[in-house]
Amino acid sequence: MATAVTSTVSFPSSKSASLPSRTSIISPERISFKKVPLHYRDVSVGGRVVSVRAQVTTEAPAKKVEKESKKMEEGVVVNKYKPKEPYVGRCLLNTKITADDAPGETWHMVFSTDGEVPYREGQSIGVIADGIDKNGKPHKLRLYSIASSALGDFGDSKTVSLCVKRLVYTNDKGEVVKGVCSNFLCDLKPGYEVKITGPVGKEMLMPKDPTATIIMLATGTGIAPFRSFLWKMFFEKHDDYKFNGLAWLFLGVPTSSSLLYKEEFEKMKEKAPENFRLDFAVSREQTNEKGEKMYIQTRMAQYAEELWELLKKDNTYVYMCGLKGMEKGIDEIMLSLAARDGIDWLDYKKKLKKAEQWNVEVY
Ligand SMILES: Cc1cc2nc3c(=O)[nH]c(=O)nc-3n(C[C@H](O)[C@H](O)[C@H](O)COP(=O)(O)OP(=O)(O)OC[C@H]3O[C@@H](n4cnc5c(N)ncnc54)[C@H](O)[C@@H]3O)c2cc1C
Ligand SMILES: NC(=O)c1ccc[n+]([C@@H]2O[C@H](COP(=O)([O-])OP(=O)(O)OC[C@H]3O[C@@H](n4cnc5c(N)ncnc54)[C@H](OP(=O)(O)O)[C@@H]3O)[C@@H](O)[C@H]2O)c1
Questions:
Q1: Which of 200, 235, 252 is the last residue of a domain?
Q2: Is there a contact between 203 and 359 (Cβ–Cβ < 8 Å)?
Q3: Which one of the listed residues 261, 295, 321, 348 is annotated catalytic?
């Protein structure tokens, strides 16, 4: 029997941009998927409802599946589009998802692909900004983790979404410098073209096992691949995947005004309280009992025993994405935990990596 999909997404944006209302593209302020019969679901954005065809939605068995290397997984496409011949998509919507008083801006954007950029949850795409560099050459591509599930935010497998932080910094000479591609993307208006390469990457592909424990560690825009995982787990119905394990997300951001996709994650928690745990580490507002800054690893340390027990299971998978610095901090926590059991963490981590249970993409 066909089943239902329910989710509500709202972007707390003050400066959002979308195509004019006469087009079929809708304001990004609110996207919600409502229960519908058969293979269609209603996508309501900005108060208007559009019916889109959903995936076939038969019940899937939630039993543990045999481990298979994600590097060998069939049907994963890499490098379909290269810089010399990129796919040219269009921006469908672009909205700021951090509040005005947040330190820095992060934007959520959706591009059309017409189904021509087939990607899996956990992959990235390249973007080539318009214009030329200081040598008069086209800009080099920059990589961005895909923030939508393979079905895309509109459920029709014809879009790809990104979560991009606008890079602005002051250099040694006191000049304000704007990052080329992040500013190009954050300024992109609906209807504008965007050159896309890829998709790329296999490190962050999801485990197939629907009973797995998936621990997701994100700082800032490192949330992107996990939004993609979590949509597949909790907002969609698939005939070959029905998540029934434990998803545990730790998200580290500087301020509560920079929390990303909070409403979506809370909605997921409401839908599946037994299968989803959600912990935020707000570094500039929270501290631990010793008064130390609340980084993601500081939050994890509060659940040290539980995390360590989970890590001993052969179907627990850890994924880390975001700032490079977080890896060291997390290693320090794990080192002390493992030592209590007389285990050398670095050795243990090597084994986990080999078994594809420890997956890292930091930059
Ligand atoms: C696999 C992967 C996935 C990624 N996913 C995402 C994502 O999902 N979202 C996202 O926002 N980003 C992501 N990034 C980062 C992204 O690729 C770009 O690096 C980022 O957007 C900056 O690019 P830019 O063109 O704006 O900056 P550029 O014009 O390339 O400028 C960046 C350069 O500026 C300099 N610089 C930067 N900060 C400072 C500073 N504070 N002081 C002095 N110099 C500085 C450094 O030399 C740096 O190399 C990802 C990177 C990788 C490798
Ligand atoms: N696939 C990938 O490789 C990938 C994907 C997406 C993003 N990224 C990268 O991830 C980074 C995310 O940055 P952002 O600007 O989006 O994040 P952000 O909003 O600045 O948030 C980062 C959070 O991490 C904290 N932090 C700083 N140093 C840390 C450390 N050593 N250990 C743990 N936490 C630490 C920050 O705290 P304070 O600021 O208070 O110190 C802040 O709370 C970018 O560099 C982006 O390029 C990589």
A1: 200
A2: yes
A3: 321
Given 140, 171, 200, the domain boundary residue is 200
pLDDT in tens, 5-64: 444 444 443 344 444 332 222 233 334 333 222 233 333 333 333 333 233 233 454 666
What ligand 1 atom has the least distance to the C-alpha of 183? 26
The whole-model pTM stands at 0.87
Q: Is the CB of 361 under 6 A from ligand 2?
A: yes
Nearest atom of ligand 1 to the alpha carbon of 129: 25
Look up 258 and say whether it is catalytic: no
In angstroms, what is the span from residue 15 Cα to ligand 1's centroid? 23
The answer as to whether 79 is a domain residue is no
Sheet holding 48-53, edge to edge: 7-10, 30-34, 40-45, 48-53
Q: Which domain holds residue 273?
A: 213-362
Is 268 part of any domain? yes
Q: Is the shortest distance between the CB of 197 and ligand 2 below 6 Å? A: no
Q: Is 252 in the pocket of ligand 2 (CB under 6 A)?
A: yes
184 with 251, same domain: the answer is: no
Please count the structural domains in the chain. Answer: 3
Q: Which residues contact 223 (CB under 8 A, 6 or more apart)?
A: 147, 163, 251, 260, 261, 321, 322
Q: Which atom of ligand 2 is nearest to the CA of 281?
A: 43
63, part of any domain: no
